[in-house]
Amino acid sequence: MTKPLMFADVLTADLERRADAIIARYPQKRSAILPLFHLVQNACNYIPEDGMRFIAKKLGLNMNDVYETLTFYSMLFTEPIGTYHIQLCRTISCYLCGTSQLREHLEKRLGIKPGQKTPDGRFRLTEVECIGACAGAPAMQINFDFYEHLTPDKVDAILDTLP
Amino acid sequence: MQTKLLTKRFDTPDSQSIRSYLADGGYAGLKKALTTMQPAEVIEEVKKSALRGRGGAGFPTGMKWGFVPVNSPKPKYVVCNADESEPGTCKDRELMQKDPHQLIEGLLIAAYALLSRQVFIYIRGEYWYLIDILERAIAEAREHGFVGERICGTDFTCEIVVHPGAGAYICGEETALLNSLEGYRGHPRIKPPFPAVAGLYGCPTVVNNVETFCAVPHIIVNGGDWYRALGTEKSGGTKIFSVSGHVNRPGNYEVRLGYPLKQLIEEEAGGVRGGRKLKAVIPGGSSVPIMTAEEVEQATLDYEGMMKAGSMLGSGGVIVMDDTTDIFMTTYNLIHFYNHESCGWCTPCREGTDWLLKLFKKIAHGDGTTADLETIKRLCPNIEGRSHCPLGDAAVWPITSAMKKFPEDFLKHVKPVAAPVAA
Ligand SMILES: Cc1cc2nc3c(=O)[nH]c(=O)nc-3n(C[C@H](O)[C@H](O)[C@H](O)COP(=O)(O)O)c2cc1C
Ligand code: SF4
Ligand code: FES
What are the boundaries of each domain within chain A? Predict the structure, then answer.
C-alpha cells in the first residue's frame, strides 16, 4: 500500500494560490470552507489535521470551528479514502432496480462490507443515498464518475478496466 | 406527448457551448430584460406566468420575488438550489449538463429583477463534473459580455459563483443551504424571517430551484401569458418529470402541467416493465404520499390535481412500482434514508426517525408484531408538524400513506399480538 500523502507533500505555491482565489470569491471568508475542504481532500485523498489547520488559518477560524463543520458532511473524510471510492446508491429507485444484488456482488468481489476499505487501500465501498441518477438505476459513482443501468457483469467490466 | 421547452436543446450537438446556445436564440431574454424592461416589470411578467417553484414546494415564483425589499440598503443575493437530492429526482443534473447557458441566462435575469449583483449556484458535491461544465459556461458568458461588469453594455453588473456542497440531503432545504453556504453545518433556520427578507449573511435572498430559473428566459422572451397557457390556470408552463423504477424507459420527460400521470407512465416511459401490473407510484420525489394504481388512473400532473389525487406534485420524481413490489420494504428503504439524512438538530426528527428505523428493522427481520405497527402509527404524529423543519414531515408521509393504502403489505410481515395497554 502506498503511504498516505501528508499535507506538506501537496502544499505547493499553486495550491495556496488556488485557495486564495477561492476565498476571494466570497463576501465573507468562512463561506469558502467547503470548497477548501474539497481542495485539500482532492489533493491528499483525505483531510489531514495539517490540512484543517491550513484552512483554519486561511479563514481566521479555530480548529473547533473547522472540525465542527467538517464532521457534518458525508463526503468529507479525515482518513485516507482509498484510490477508488465506490459509492453504490441504495435508495428507492436503485433499490427497485436491484441494488441489493450489486452490493452482494461487490462485497464478494472485494471481500469487504460497506464502510470498509480493502487492505491495499485500493477500494473503499460505501452505500450512499440517492446520487441523482435515479433514471439510470441502479447507479454508482466511483470517485466523481457516474455509472448507470448497472448489472453485476457491468460492474465487473468497469472494475476490470480501472488502472 | 412531450412539450419540450426547457429540454428542447438536449439533443442538439454541442448543446453546452455558447455558440450553439446563441445560434438557437440564446440570451435574447436577457437582452430584452436589460434593454426594454424595468426590474419590476420582469417580476410582473413572472407573476403572470404562474410559474411555481420546481424544487418541491411549488411556491409561486413571482410572488416570492415580490417579497424582496427593493429599498433595502443591504446587498441582495440570488441563490440557485442545485442540491438535487430528493430520491427519484434527476432533472436538474440533465438541465445543467446539457444546457448550462439556459440556467445562467435565467439566473442573470433574476439577478437583474432583484437588483442583485451576486449569484451563487449551490450544487451538490457529488455533481463534481457539472462544476467544470458550469464554470466553463460562465467563462464563455463572460467573454461574450453576459457576466461581469456592464453586462450587454448596460450598467448591470453581476458575478456568478459555483459553490460545491459536500454530501447532506438537508442542505437542499433553503435555510440549511444558506447556513452551509455561509460555511457552517447545514442545520435549517427557523422561518420567519424568510430568506427574501433575511437570507444569506442576513441580507435579502431569493432561493430557487435550477428548473425554476431555467424557465425564466422563456417567460421573458415569449411573455408570461404564453407560458401560463402551456399549463393550467394555477400551474403555469411545463415541468420535467424524472420517471424511475419499474418502467420500460426511465428518463426525464417534459410535459405541460395538467398532463395525465397515467399517460406519462404508459406513453413517455413506455409502461410498466415486463408487461406487469402497476401497483403503486410515488409521484413527487420520495417525500410525498404514495399513490395506489387506482389513484393514478385519474390523476393530472399539476399542483392542484395531485392534491386531489391524494398526493403532491413535489419535485416531479415519479417512482413507479409493479405488482411484485413489497410496499413494506420500499417504506423501510425510505425511513433508512430519512434517518440517515436527519440533521440531528431537533428531537422529534432525530430520535423519532431512529425509533422508526429500529421498528422497521425488527419487523424486516421477522420479529415484528402488530403491536409494533401500532407503535409506528403512534410515533408518526409525534414527528409530523412538531419538527424544526419539513424533513420531519417528509419522513412521516411516506409511512402513514403506505400503511393506510397498503395495509396488507405491512400485516404480512408481523405476528398478531394484542397491543400492550398504554401506561
Ligand atoms: C428536506 C428538504 C430538502 C429539499 N431539497 C431540495 C433540493 O434538493 N432542491 C431544491 O431545489 N429544493 C429543495 N427543497 C426545497 C427548498 O427548501 C426550497 O423550497 C426551494 O429551493 C425553493 O425553490 P423553488 O421555489 O424554485 O422550488 C428541499 C426542502 C426540504 C424541506
Ligand atoms: S426536522 Fe430533522 S432535518 Fe429538520 S431540523 Fe429537525 S432534525 Fe434537522
Ligand atoms: S435512488 Fe439511486 S440514484 Fe436516485
Answer: 7-70, 84-160
The maximal CA–CA distance of chain B, rounded, in angstroms, is: 76
Domains, chain B: 18-230 (3.40.50.11540), 239-315 (3.10.20.600), 327-411 (1.20.1440.230)
Q: Is the ipTM of this complex over 0.90?
A: yes
**Which ligand is in closest contact with the Cα of B388?**
2
The pLDDT, as a whole number, for residue B422 is 57
- Using alpha carbons only, give the angle A123, A128, A132 rounded to the nearest 5 degrees: 115
DSSP B138-179: HHHHHHTTSSBSSGGGSS--BEEEEEE--S-GGGGSHHHHHH
Q: What is the dihedral of CA B402, B404, B405, B409, to 10 degrees?
A: 70
Report the alpha-carbon distance of residue B18 to residue B142 in Å, rounded: 11
Q: Residue B109 and residue B107: Cα distance in Å, rounded?
A: 5
What percent of chain B has a predicted confidence (pLDDT) above 90?
98
Nearest-Cα distance to chain A for B30, in Å, is 24
Integer angstrom CA distances of residue A15 from A7, A40, A98, B130: 11, 9, 42, 22
pLDDT band, residue B417 (cuts 50/70/90): confident
pLDDT at B418: 65
| Among candidate residues B339, B21, B421, B52, the one with its CA nearest the CA of residue B209 | B52
Considering only CA atoms, give the Rg of chain B.
Answer: 22
Q: How far apart are CA B33 and CA A86, in angstroms?
A: 46
Closest CA to A150 of A108, A127, A128, A158: A158
What's residue B419's pLDDT? 57
More confident residue, B419 or A120: A120
pTM over 0.95: yes
Rg of chain A over Cα atoms, rounded to whole angstroms, equals 18
Pocket of ligand 1 (CB under 6 A): B 53-57, 59, 81, 83-86, 170, 172-174, 207-209, 212, 389-391, 394
The CATH code for residues A84-160 is 3.40.30.10
Task: Give the ligand with the smallest distance to the CA of B87.
Answer: 3
What residues have CB less than 8 Å from B1, skipping those under 6 apart? B255, B267
Q: What does the block give as the cell for B389? A: 423543519
